[in-house]
Amino acid sequence: MHHFTYRNDRLFAEEVDLTALADAVGTPFYVYCEATLRRHLRIFADAFADTDTLIAYSVKASSNISVLKVLASEGAGADVVSAGELHRALIAGVAPRKIVFSGVGKTRDELSFALDANIYQFNVESEPELIALDEIAQTKGLRAPIALRINPDVAAGAHENISTGKSEDKFGVPWSRARALYATARAMKGVEIKGVDVHIGSQIDDLAPFEAAFKKIAVLINDLRADGCTIERLDLGGGLGIPYGEGATPPHPQAYAQMIKQVTASLGVQLIFEPGRMIAGNAGALVARVIYIKDGASRRFIILDAGMNDLMRPALYDAYHELWPVVKDNNKASEDYDVVGPICESTDRFAKARTLPRQNTGDLIAIMSAGAYGASQTSQYNTRPLIPEILVSGGRYAIIRKRPTLDEMMDGEAIADWLR
Ligand code: LLP
Questions:
Q1: 16-57 tens-digit pLDDT
Q2: pLDDT tens-digit profile of 83-109?
Q3: Taking the alpha carbons of 249, 164, 191, 222 in that order, is the dihedral positive or negative?
Q4: From 49, 297, 333, 344, the catalytic residue
Q5: Which atom of ligand 1 is nearest to the CA of 275?
Q6: Domain shared by 263 and 297, yes or no
Q7: 33 labelled catalytic
Q8: Does residue 387 fall inside a structural domain?
Q9: Which domain holds residue 114?
Q10: Is residue 89 part of a domain?
Q11: Model pTM score
Q12: Does residue 254 contact residue 49 with C-beta atoms inside 8 Å?
């Protein structure tokens, strides 16, 4: 559920009229409903209310500091994958004891920064990373709290580009080497084993792959304990899908929680989760304006002022996003359109043969469910400025990332001295 609704045929984000907002801030822009962010976090937290749980929101999904602040105020921690995300989380006021650090390629500088920040857990993904972390921590006279991310060799995820739990994926420690690597870690002075970590993919709309992976991990925990490891925590990653409107009905967090409680009941561990999309996805929309309607040889195109640089998901994963007219006119006939952006790439397309009420130049379209992996994946390709992010709360709104001017976009560039 989200807080985008029509009032007298005009689309509102909470109490804010998106037509007026578009006039005030210019298009295209991202808009997030604070109420939805809070609601989704609470739904997730409530599902695990009777369990010792840390919900570490996956910052990569939507990383604006204001978004992080909203979630931190609800008690969320953060799952970060870079020094940049860690810096954001700290600025937003997320307590270091609620921050976990994931990712296959943490640099020594990043490990060092996170050690200094005294974070809760490093999710280590390889032997060389373990060795580096041990070394760096020892130099500092510290012990890094770790979990090893285990690759359970289970296929999951709506699209092969977002599946991470198969043995051929780059993620995690191979299942067959897990016990040996824990034994290595146990002998290290710079790391302290705290738990086990697993994350199998994203936009998963079925409990079966989760259950298969988590059952394997439960067996591993018992094996590790038999080997003499102390395992107090189990990080189950993120990955729960959301309804994008294309017919899929992902499991409710309650059902997800019930399955997990069953699988982990006898383990006596703290559970850590890293949900991203489930929290932010339906909290956000991208609002764009129709620049032209163009008749091609065989198709009619809506050319928007937003492009694939503003929302990569359709181009990268063939992702489906609902398109809602910001002003509804029920008298308008429907037409089939290819909805595209202005970028010089054929993949710059938000929808193919989509039936919409007839559109005209100047009309506004909301690309729905764009709150996760939308703004956080933007680029300046074609030298287009990063688009603003707007946070709505009730009837108020705030620009939480501004649109840079053309000069600001080029700020970091310099002309080589021999070209001056
Ligand atoms: N934890 C780890 C270690 C992850 O790699 C991810 C996402 C998450 C948690 C959060 O997963 P979520 O709950 O959001 O599914 N850009 C793609 C999705 C990439 C997911 C990357 N990892 C998309 O737009 O669909």
A1: 999 999 999 999 999 999 999 999 999 999 999 999 999 999
A2: 999 999 999 999 999 999 999 999 999
A3: positive
A4: 344
A5: 13
A6: no
A7: no
A8: yes
A9: 103-273
A10: no
A11: 0.97
A12: no
